[in-house]
Each structure stands twice: as structure tokens, then as C-alpha cells.
Amino acid sequence: MDGQLCLIFGLTFLIHLIGTLAYSVRIAGTRTGRIAVSYALFNLLMLVSRTSNSFQAPLLAKRIEVNLRRGIEGGVVGDFRWLIAAATLATVAGAFLIPTFQRVFGRAVLSFSEHRSVLRLVWLGLSWAGFASLRGSLRLPASGNLTRLGGAPRLPTRVIVSNVAATAAWTVGVFAPLYAGYLNPGLRTTSSNLSAVINGVATILMFGLIDPYLSVLTDDVVEGRISDGTFRRSIVWLVGGRLAGTVLAQLLLVPAALAIVYVAERL
Question: Is 153 strand, coil or helix?
């Protein structure tokens, strides 16, 4: 793995790590009772994710252009598999960090509610007190959340399947069109524009089926209709579905790229 691929690997890891940690924002919101503030602060991290995404695609596109000029064959698909592996590793890392992150984030929400200044919050986070708070918040996932999955009320099958499909589509949404452009260089622009179709499917699944259900579940916790433990186990199901989606993306990469080439040739 060369330096450029390592950089893209790191950006991909960061994007999917933040995406996984988004689940812990809901836990912090229900525990602090400040859901709106939690989402507002998490948007700062989403800016980091979107900035990483804005660098990821051009770097990948340039890498493919260079490989085409040099006549390199066979190594491109390996690059994409490394990047999908980065998404899987980031999801696993995010799953282990959720208990720690939701505690740190919960304290940040309460601190922001008191001081009402992002700069003040950043300053406190970088202070010795902030590092001490981080050290005191370190936690591993509770094993009970896994051992009680079978007997606990779980998410509807349609939500779990939609979560897996949306994650798989979102993961290959950037990679498959670029690989399709490599397979048929004459239609690189058309193939890259078709990424909006794949991402559109992922967006419909995410915001049409998954997010509304999770939002209702969050409100149910705040109103006391379900327990905090049930809610956290539901988050475990979602994280597991996200992990399965990144693994499924490995299988979908080549078929999706071939499908994009097929569509691009017949538009």
C-alpha cells in the first residue's frame, strides 16, 4: 500500500467511523434530555466527514487516471477492496468506541448547554480537565447488550435489511462508479455521474425507513415507553447491520461496476 492509498484509506476510515459514532449521539441525547443540542454539536463532526469525503473522491479519480495512463491492470480492484476493508474496520472501531463516545459527547452537550459557546467547548476539551474527563469516560461495550440480543425485542426485519442494504449501497456508491470508469474509460464521466443513482437508493432507504423508525424509538425512550437497555440493544442491531453492509459491499463492488458500465453504454 503506497502513501496515496494510505491517505485515501485513512479518509475512508474517518468517514465511516463518524458514521458509526452517529448512533451514540442518540444515546447521549436521551440520557441528557437535550436531543436537539446533541444533533447540533454532532453536525460539527459531520463537517469533518463531509470534508474528508470531498477529498476522497478526487484522490481516487486521479489515482485511476494515473493507472490508465500507465496502463496498469489488475491492481485497481485491489485498491477498492482495501478501501471497503477500511469501512469495515472503521465500523468495528466505532462499535467499540460508542460507550466511550456517548459519555464524552454527553458531557460536551451539558457543557455547551451551560456555556453556549463552541469555542469555549473546544477550549475545555483540549484542557487537562478535558483529557481527565476523557480518561474517566473510557468504557468497553457491555457484554450484556450482545448476550441478550436474542431474547430482547429487536428491530423489525425490514429495518435491519434496509440498514444492511443502505450501508452496502452507500459504501460502493463512490467506488463502483469510479471502477466502472476504469473498466470503460470512454464513459468515465457518465459512470461517475451514475453514483448519484446508487447514493439515491441508499438515501431513500436511510431516510425513508431507518431514520424515521429510529427517531420514534428515541422519542419512546425520552417518554419512558421503552427502557434505555432496549434502546441500546436496538443500536447494537443497527451497528451490526452496518457492519454486515460493509462486508456485503465487497461482494457488490464488481457487479455494481459492471451494471454501471452496462447502463452507461445504453443511455
Answer: coil
In terms of Cβ atoms closer than 10 Å to its own Cβ (0-12, 13-18, 19+), residue 201 is middle
Q: 85-123 as b/e, with b when 16 or more CB fall inside 10 Å? A: bbbbbbbeebbebbbbbbbbbbbbbbbbeeeeeeeebee
- SS3 breakdown of the chain: % helix, strand, coil, rounded to 5? 85, 0, 15
| 234, 159 Cβ separation under 8 angstroms | no
The whole-model pTM stands at 0.85
Q: Is 10 helix (H, G, I), strand (E, B) or coil?
A: helix
Count of H helices and E strands in the chain? Answer: 11, 0
Backbone angles phi, psi at 142, to 5 degrees: -75, 130
**How many angstroms separate the Cα of 169 from the Cα of each of 5, 74, 91, 165, 262?**
22, 23, 15, 6, 18
Tell me the residue length of the chain: 267
Q: How confident is the model at residue 83 (pLDDT cuts 50, 70, 90)?
A: very high
- Would you place residue 142 in the very low, low, confident or very high pLDDT band (cuts 50, 70, 90)? low
